[in-house]
Design goal:
Number of domains: 3
Structural class: alpha+beta
Radius of gyration: 21 Å
Largest sheet: 4 strands, antiparallel
Number of helices: 7
Strand order of the largest sheet: 5-6-7-8
Shape: globular
Strand content: 15-25%
Helix content: 25-40%
Length: 212
């Protein structure tokens, strides 16, 4: 009878096929990990401006230090676990070369490949696991352009620059509108923090400004 050998044991061929399938499924479902899967990409492509060894930490962001990045995740919306299209890190990687907020900046090094950008997108979608911690999970679109409420143009459009926004209580903040996501406006402060601000809480004048 045909047999199958695994881990030093002999199994009937049907059982062996089942084991192979289980192993294949297990490998395909292995969650992405920042230190193992994502950080090496950033170290290769982004270390000139965002690493300890380079002496440069532009935007206060170190991509070669998981502890530092984990702290950034908890303080602002650089990465929103499970919400890739609201994560500023992904948006800057997705935008085309020459865009004011694209990474890498034009002439500043090799950009991530589409496959590497998608890997970052999947990492965020899986909850941005880092240092054994993981946030909420999201969903990957079959096609970015086909994602409901989202399209390539809205992801790549240039921000209009900082302006004053007013809420219903008359309080003002100065921020750059990144984009509108359903009932929420993504506003980036001067320090890089991105807020998902409910449009319903903005003044009528500020709501009209979203349509400009």
């Amino acid at each position: 009878m045909t047999s199958f050998v695994a881990a030093g044991r002999v199994f009937p061929v049907k059982t062996g096929i089942l084991i192979l399938l289980q192993l294949a499924i297990g490998w395909s479902l292995q969650a992405l990990d920042y230190e193992r899967d994502i950080m090496p990409i950033f170290e290769e492509k982004c270390s000139d401006c965002h690493s300890k060894d380079s002496g440069k930490v532009k935007g206060g962001l170190r991509l070669d230090d998981p502890d530092h990045l984990l702290g950034r995740l908890s303080k602002n919306n650089l990465v929103i676990p499970g919400d890739w299209d609201a994560s500023y890190l992904f948006i800057t990687l997705y935008r085309p070369a020459g865009h004011d907020d694209a990474m890498q900046p034009e002439g500043k090094g090799e950009r991530l490949t589409p496959e590497e950008v998608e890997l970052v997108q999947r990492w965020i979608t899986e909850g941005a696991p880092i240092k054994g911690e993981r946030g909420a999970r999201g969903e990957m679109p079959e096609n970015l352009k086909d994602k409901p409420g989202e399209d390539a143009e809205s992801m790549t459009a240039k921000p209009s620059g900082p302006r004053v926004w007013t809420n219903l209580e008359g309080k003002e903040i100065t921020a750059t509108l990144l984009r509108v996501d359903g009932e929420v406006a993504l506003l980036r402060m001067a320090n890089g923090t991105v807020y998902r601000y409910p449009i319903a809480n903005l003044s009528e004048e500020s709501r009209k400004a979203l349509e400009e």
